[in-house]
Design brief:
Elements: H1 10-54, H2 59-73, H3 76-88, H4 100-113, H5 116-122, H6 129-160, H7 162-174, H8 185-189, H9 191-200, H10 205-231, H11 235-242, H12 247-261, H13 264-276, H14 282-295, H15 298-307, H16 310-330, H17 335-350, H18 354-375
Length: 376
């Protein structure tokens, strides 16, 4: 008969409870910071975002407007909601305020713009070189997948319209089904506190952003340290068993978490410090990112079904199809996005300042430059 393990000393139990409490508080601070960053940038960019979307005049311009708008307001869900409302709205002549063929590229651009949050989170590790060269490629893996998907499927869509065609058929089939709105747990736990803090700070983004940054960096530090202490030497076993134990499990975890909390930014940003700590690899992270990309479309589809507008439903399904097509195309060719992310990791290992240049060029300079150029 096997001996029973000795009971834990009261001090040991107390330490474990304390560590769990610290980890939970750090996780909450991290989630609160992401919500505050989004809320702060919406204060700055929401009116501008609406004006940008309204001035979309062609698919190419729509693509870069989608990138810039989502970078500004830090929420692909908010961008999708704006696009759906503009598509569903009609002009005096009865035509949609935003044509579907212009709306679909905006949705594609939103997929790229939403990844800026991951890269911002990776900057937390910039003072620790070994962690940063793992965290930065993990953050930009999401970028690489979406950029590559846009390169392939935007070109195909402009000439052959497969996403527009299939999404229109789905919209016809589901137009009379009806839907329901799903409330994210974050809406109850995090959003009221974030809104209260923003209100207390005078609803000025230049006050709220620094507070959000402090919460982000502090939350990440204690969250990663707490996870290491809680799981100890069995950290890798814990993560493999419950989160990243094979590509199918990682995909389903990413999809489920994102569908429930309704934020791919939070889902993927959570994995960045794990990569920085060396607990997961890019190979393990890739299917998780793909699942998160598909999970983020669920809420928009349910919300669009509530409207009963075939055009609104079509746009929501177009977002889903874009991510499904991208997953089906790039997962067998995953060596390409993985290699590009690793290349970025090698560059920042020698020049950490390149991370800031990358952020500015990809998410601001290129979109703004091309929008101005196309307006002429």
């Amino acid at each position: 008969m096997a001996d029973k393990p000795p009971p834990q000393a009261p001090s040991s139990v107390f330490k474990r409870i304390l560590r769990i409490a610290i980890f939970a508080a750090a996780l909450y601070a991290f989630l609160l910071s992401i919500e505050m960053i989004s809320g702060s940038l919406k204060l700055l960019g929401m009116p501008f975002a609406e004006a940008l979307i309204k001035m979309t005049s062609n698919p190419v311009m729509g693509l870069f407007i989608g990138i810039l708008v989502t970078t500004l307001i830090q929420s692909s869900s908010a961008t999708t909601s704006l696009v759906v409302s503009f598509v569903a709205a009609q002009t005096i002549t009865g035509a949609p305020l935003l044509p579907v063929e212009h709306a679909i590229p905006i949705i594609m651009g939103a997929n790229i713009g939403t990844t800026v949050t991951n890269t911002m989170v990776s900057l937390f590790h910039i003072s620790r070189k070994d962690e940063f060269i793992r965290a930065f490629p993990a953050a930009t893996l999401h970028d690489m997948f979406n950029i590559l998907s846009v390169i392939v499927f935007f070109t195909i869509e402009v000439f052959f319209h497969p996403i527009g065609y299939v999404s229109s058929k789905l919209a016809q089939w589901f137009a009379g089904v009806g839907g329901f709105k799903v409330a994210s747990p974050l809406a109850f736990v995090v959003k009221p506190v974030a809104r209260a803090i923003i209100h207390l700070l005078g609803s000025k983004f230049y006050f709220t952003l620094p507070v959000a940054a402090v919460l982000l960096f502090g939350g990440l530090k204690f969250m990663v340290d707490g996870m290491r202490k809680l799981v100890g030497s069995k950290t890798e076993v814990f993560i493999d068993r419950y989160l990243f134990g094979g590509p199918v499990r990682a995909f389903l975890v990413g999809l489920t978490i994102t569908a429930v909390i309704q934020s791919s930014s939070v889902t993927t940003s959570f994995a960045v410090p794990l990569a920085g700590a060396g607990l997961i690899t890019l190979q393990q992270l890739f299917p998780y990112v793909l699942g998160a990309n598909i999970g983020t479309t669920v809420t928009a589809i349910l919300a669009a079904l509530v409207t009963g507008s075939p055009l609104a439903i079509q746009v929501a399904f177009a977002h889903l199809l874009f991510n499904i097509f991208g997953t089906a195309f790039w997962y067998p060719l995953k060596i390409v996005p993985l290699s590009l992310a690793r290349l970025l990791g090698k560059i920042v290992s020698k020049r950490r300042w390149f991370a800031l240049v990358y952020l500015a060029v990809v998410f601001v300079i290129i979109p703004v430059g091309l929008i101005l150029l196309l307006r002429r």
